[in-house]
Amino acid sequence: MLTKAKLKEQIESFPEKFSLDELIERLILVEKIEAGIFQSETGQTISDTELDKEIEKWFK
């Protein structure tokens, strides 16, 4: 979840004029990155070997 501070930081990094779509895309990206970092820090990841097995299933 985004904080007001993170939202403000993102808005301040934009040029003077920008579209709402650009802002929404940026916020979605930031939220996904933060979720991934949280998952990594809390051990909610899989190993390379497990990933390789999952990918093999996709192509069978």
Model description:
- The protein is 70% helix and 0% strand.
- The longest helix is centred in the middle third of the chain and has 22 residues.
- It starts with a helix and ends with a helix.
- The mean pLDDT is 94.
Q: N-to-C SSE series?
A: HHH
Strand proportion:
under 5%
User: Largest sheet, if any?
Assistant: none
SSE-based structural type:
mainly alpha
N-C termini distance: 36 Å
Q: Which spans of ≥5 residues are poorly predicted at pLDDT below 50?
A: none
The 3D shape can be described as elongated
> How would you classify the quaternary structure?
single chain
Query: How many β-strands, per DSSP?
Result: 0
Query: From the alpha-carbon coordinates, what is the Rg to the nearest angstrom?
Result: 17 Å
The percentage helix is over 70%
Mean pLDDT: 94
- The tally of helices reads 3
In short:
70% of the residues lie in helices and 0% in strands. It is mainly α.
Secondary-structure map with pairings?
Blueprint lengths: L3 H9 L7 H22 L6 H11 L2
Keyword list:
single chain; 60 residues; mainly alpha
